[in-house]
């Protein structure tokens, strides 16, 4: 990631400074929780996409830096809300904000980050970006609700799964690229092509996240293996087992999902391995990786384009 950031290193640091500055509040709890989750680090992948897109299209302005902070605030707000909904206890190797400060505080500070993001967007004074981000944020919320409604349903199809991860995860990747291209003054067709890049990248990224939930190392990932099962989330590895496993394996998955229980996680991991379900999911992620790569072909050669290509490769070749 350090090499990928190199072409926008100065802008990336400017985004981090702006994030810290914009966390300021007269209410101590807001700053405490905001800093707690932001200081935990993470890849900062979504704001990085905005910066690299701007750099690939002629260079990053102060507006790109502001927009990248908007993207990170929205993403961070979704994490705060997600962890409350999922009753998560560990993220990025330490207790979640809701485990540390309580659910009510986490939800309300998540609301603060959402509204701070829109305050920053108003400063951009670009109605196209504002409209697109309003639509994106609404779509993310719908994706969260859709995932909640479908939790515990072992009959979830691959199409159902794809709809959830597109709405919940991939649309923010797409928005980071689309907004940056818009701020670079590009035509709608060019902006949409880069949005397609982000969307396919986001889908591939989430599919690998779902693989790592069954074969990743908890210390490396900074979260517990099997969390998705505890939350009743039917991800692609489980869908593949339901389609290709033995009767006993299908019943095992069905009971675990319906009960939202990881009590038999070891047995389920064995079923996932025997069916080749993680390999299947990686191949599906590779398909979206290839679609994303094709969207970069029209970009001018340079360090930023190379970095976008490197992120695309990293999305499917990682351990956390």
TrEMBL record:
Keyword hit for Magnesium: yes
GO biological process: isoprenoid biosynthetic process
UniProt xrefs under InterPro entries: Isoprenoid_synthase_dom_sf, Polyprenyl_synt, Polyprenyl_synt_CS
Keyword Plastid: no
SUPFAM superfamilies, alphabetized: Terpenoid synthases (SSF48576)
Family per similarity comment: Belongs to the FPP/GGPP synthase family.
Name of this protein: Octaprenyl diphosphate synthase
